[in-house]
Amino acid sequence: MRIVVIGGGPAGMMAAVSAADCGASVILLEKNEKLGKKLYITGKGRCNLTNSCAEEEFFDHVVSNGKFLYSSIYGFPAGQVCAFFEAEGLRLKEERGGRIFPVSDKSSDVIKTMEKALQERNVQIRLRTEVKELLLSDGEVQGVLLSDHTKITADAVIVATGGLSYRSTGSTGDGYRFAQQTGHKVTELRPSLTALTVLEESVKELEGLSLRNIEIRIEGFREFGEMLFTSDGVSGPVILTASAALCRAIAEKTPLSLHIDLKPALTEEQLDVRVQRDFEAARNKDFCNSLSGLLPAKLIPVIVRESAIPEHKKVNEITRAERKRLVALLKNLVFTVTGNKGFEQAVITQGGVSVKDISPSTMASKKVRNLYFAGEVMDVDAYTGGYNLQIAWSTGALAGSSAAGAEYNRK
Fold first, then answer.
1. Which of 91, 110, 278, 323 has the fewest CB atoms within 10 Å distance of its CB?
2. Contact indicator for 63, 350 with CB cutoff of 8 Å
3. 408 part of a folded domain
4. Element (DSSP H or E) covering residue 304
5. Please, is 267 exposed, middle or buried when counting C-beta atoms within 10 Å of its C-beta (0-12, 13-18, 19+)?
């Protein structure tokens, strides 16, 4: 049995391994000059390849169509993904939040491990090979037509072409085109897990500043953790998560208000006591020189300006009303979100081939026989923390075994 896999990303590579393990002859087609080009840059080059949380908890981190993923995630959960990589010789480690990384902190080692696994299973890898369209006959896929007009026949085809994010890595939406050409619905595509732009010019002063243990609120969404200021907006884990949770709202309702609680561990009353204590210690200083124990240096000029307290006013002259205004500001620093950074900087694409057109138990198309989908090309996505790569591994494994006509099981 011959299976063609389109796309050499995580889902495509795992689909090829899975199909080969089930006895199929597999051809993996990748239009780039190497496999795993986007995988190489994930996790800042470290590759957060999955998350150790329990399967039940995993679905709390899925943004779109979690129920669709039940069969694939339970069939090849994080523990089995880790066991697979370790059996292939990759040493792993767990970090804060259950995030799993290679011990080497090199995403290239994850790719090398997958390449070795493919080679050991005699998967035929064809690089710099672009698929132009699927070959169909009587509602059944029979292979692919390459851009050089070469035809490759196959008993099954797996589309694992990724989304639109990081287009420089080859994510140009080919899979959506294949899906639409074969009668599948593609839902609206939006950049997700991306930095946000803000209106206020003050962010330029804050560029590069990282804030830890803060809480943000946007449109009722709350998240505690770390954020980063950029030259034109905000980024960091809590912002990326917000961009996924509020993907539609950001696309349709901007501007939105971003509220930052700089001291979420303290109530306003507790923070007021803390400020009074700091003020007492700095009672003869100018206001602008009294906040170093409370805030990072880069943030102080912005807070001083936003508080409307004269910067050179002596601390012992600050009124109760002014102090209360400062406390309120520290608990609610507001910026205006104007949009996101688009597909070029998005980690993933939200939207894709409608899961209504795909069988969740096999990843098979409901429209075309012997056609399968895996990974980001489908309308499934999750927050940061290794969850999106877990989706890729799990759906790839299920698509590969299903295409090969076998029940996938690594236990």
1. 91
2. yes
3. no
4. helix 300-307
5. exposed
- What dihedral do alpha carbons 34, 109, 378, 19 form, nearest 10°? 80
Are 177 and 233 found together in one domain?
no
State which of 288, 316, 340 marks the end of a domain: 340
Token pair 């599948």 is found at 184
Closest of 14, 42, 34 to residue 348, by C-alpha:
42
Shared domain for 221 and 200, answered yes or no, is yes
Burial of 53 (0-12, 13-18, 19+ CB in 10 A): buried
SS3 135: strand
Pairwise CA distance, residues 45 & 42, whole Å = 5
Domain final residue pick, 324, 340, 356 = 340
Residue recorded with tokens 């779109």? 64
Residues 172, 191: Cα–Cα separation, whole Å: 13
Half-sphere exposure of 123 (CA within 13 A, CB side): 34
Residues 6+ apart with CB under 8 A from 317: none
Query: CA–CA separation, 207 vs 214, rounded Å?
Result: 17
Do 212 and 170 lie in one domain? The reply is no
What is residue 317's DSSP assignment? G
Tokens 């370790």, residue? 86
pLDDT (tens, 9 = 90+) of the chain, 411 residues, equals 999 999 999 999 999 999 999 999 999 999 999 999 989 888 888 999 999 999 999 999 999 999 999 999 999 999 999 999 999 999 999 999 999 999 999 999 999 999 999 999 999 999 999 999 999 999 999 999 999 999 999 999 999 999 987 666 666 789 999 999 999 999 999 999 999 999 999 999 999 999 999 999 999 999 999 999 999 999 999 999 999 999 989 988 879 999 999 999 999 999 999 999 999 999 999 999 999 999 999 999 999 999 999 999 999 999 999 999 999 999 999 999 999 998 988 899 999 999 999 999 999 999 999 999 999 999 999 999 999 999 999 999 999 999 999 654 433
Buried b (16+ CB within 10 A) or exposed e, 289-318: ebbeebbeeebbbbbbebbebeeebebeeb
Closest C-alpha among 174, 156, 130, 120 to residue 4 = 156
pTM: 0.91
What's the Cα-to-Cα distance from 226 to each of 103, 207, 213, 242, rounded to whole Å?
24, 15, 6, 12
